[in-house]
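re: ur question from the group chat, yeah i did fold both. here u go
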Amino acid sequence: MIGPTPLLDCFRRGEMPREARLLAAQGALTPRAYEQLAILVFLLDDRDGEIRLAAEQTLARIPVEPLQAFLARPDVPLDLREFFGDRGIFPPEIPPIAPLESDDPLIDTEPPESPADLEAKDTAAAAGIEEPQNEERESAVLRVAKMGFSERLKAAMKGSREIRAILIRDPNRLISTSVLSSPKVTESEVESFARMGSVSEDILRIISLNRAWMRNYGIAAALTRNPKTPLAMSMKLMSRLNERDLNMLSTDRNVPDPLRIAARRKVVAGVSRR
């Protein structure tokens, strides 16, 4: 299901610097499939000619069959279907029995390892040279600290779970919200993000707007208990809590007083009805 598109929204609001727009136009940013296509289409009207040309070339390189399979999804917006229809690309005449549900990007221009790099690895393996152990590797925090904006933006899409857990708290809103556009992000990660007191309110709002994520009880409960969640949202979500979580909320000194008091009233009302 196509949910909120935080990265696309940043492009539409004109918040993305040129380096990020060029990366996206070249296909080097790999958010969820819909966002990737919508961003490429949006960049065809960019004020920068180099970016417009790169977006056009990247769109032309997208393999036709995966694109057609994506367009067959029932949740693809009509305007996107019409755009590709004008270019002679339509969903299959016979719809697939199981439409493509993957959110993986349709193109990734990140260059593979060079033959020299692969040869060096083979040589090391043949010589019995082992990869450094975990404790010898540079920590993820240090690696992220050394990254520039574009590197962090790409890492938000392609990085490991550990990297995403760091970047979701990045002080740059464009980076932190982009983590939620990664096709790699899982519901268990989203639940952990929803629990974090160190994430921005923007992150919590984006999570709350994703209907697929909000069907997950753990995510809804985590948002309710997060002190940073806007009060109106927490009050609304409170009605979904089970008895155990409602009891915990009613005594939680970290949440706003109105939420804790409302939870206590619900607990008392539930006891009186027994």
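okk and heres the other one u asked abt
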Amino acid sequence: MLTYVVRRLLIAIPTLWGVATGVFIMARLLPGDPARVIAGVLATPEQVEHVRHQLGLDQPLYVQYLDFMGQLLHLNLGTSAHFGSPVAAEIASRIPYTVALAVTAIAIAVVVGVLAGVGAAIRRNTPLDLAISALSVFGISMPVYWLGLMLIVIFAIQLHWLPAAGADSPSSIILPAFTLAVFSVGLIARITRGSMLEVLNQDYIRTARAKGAPFRLVVFKHALRNALLPIITTIGLQFGSLLGGAVLTESVFSWPGVGRLLLDSIFFRDYPMVQGLVLLFAVTYIVINLLTDLLYAYVDPRIRYD
């Protein structure tokens, strides 16, 4: 197991190098002059040139790239051009908000999605199955920004039950977490239903039923456990995506997480911050995928990483 983990971490090195190179190039392809944006529309040409020199944008592109990669080797993400503070410190201040939002959303998605998928599978082709399938498609198809705005209109503006934006109170997380969970609920429910239907048709399930095992025991101990691998894969990918920063959801609800920070940084052409955030997202996906693979061996004893 340790050898497998070390090998995966070594494989991640060229992946991170590729991500760093890609984000460096794409950041420079963004339209607009970052020096002008940071200096302001009323700044003189001399002030703009001074900002450009501070950012190192007056250097050749290959010099900027070598300087960027050199800083990464020393785990230095640089200084934010917009906030004027270290990129790592600014990101660290936003991560707790995104983690809280992601954990809450994935918890809702796992509980509701798995139970809905199991219910649809054991009641196949019944009105319950059709209703769950329709709601799952609805959740997958629903645009996040539209759903978020509708929830704000209903629960914040009309009913005055919940805050419309910000993170000033514990109840502020309810609307963005629900909005973020809707897509994952639909996807997990669909995957759970399909995986459960495949397992419920196996001979050992019919044997367990024929021996008189309780139906609930057959479903949750025998069927669900053997159907978990694709469900775990889906949950892992969704959790990685949520931790990577739900840009639209955080923007709609003015949630001070890394997703909103990324959007603001792109708007202000803050190259160091954009580069640091994209690298954070890449590391998040790599770690979540590794943990998901390790969880396979725990769920299914037949899987060994030798």
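fwiw on the second one: Residues 96-299 form a domain with the MetI-like fold fold (CATH 1.10.3720.10). The radius of gyration is 24 Å. idk if thats what u expected
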